[in-house]
Amino acid sequence: KVLRFYSVEHLTIMILAIALITIGYSQAKKKVEAAQKFRATFIYYLIGLLLILAGIPWPFRFPGAGWF
Predict the structure, then answer these.
(1) Can you state the percent helix, strand and coil of the chain, rounding each to 5?
(2) Containing structural domain, residue 30
(3) 22 with 47: CB under 8 angstroms?
(4) Does pLDDT of 64 surpass 70?
(5) For residue 62, is it within any domain?
């Protein structure tokens, strides 16, 4: 289970989060109004942050696993 997390889930989630943050940045550059720019940036960055937090191997996700 831990090996699958590191080899599949962690890698996929982190790449997806980086892609979403990059897409959000490029979408925000195309907006004209400042409020639209900040809203687009906020939404994409928030989703990216949540994915990053979901992809971190927290100790409580795996029984018996510690920080190191």
Answers:
(1) 80, 0, 20
(2) 2-56
(3) no
(4) no
(5) no
- For residue 63, tell me if it sits in a domain: no
pLDDT of 6 reads 79
Asked whether 65 and 59 are in contact (CB, 8 A), the reply is yes
Report the domain count for the chain: 1
* Among 55, 21, 13, 14, CA closest to 41: 21
Report residue 66 as tokens: 């510690």
Amino acid, single-letter form, for residue 52: I
Residue type, 43: I
Confidence of residue 4 (pLDDT cuts 50, 70, 90): confident
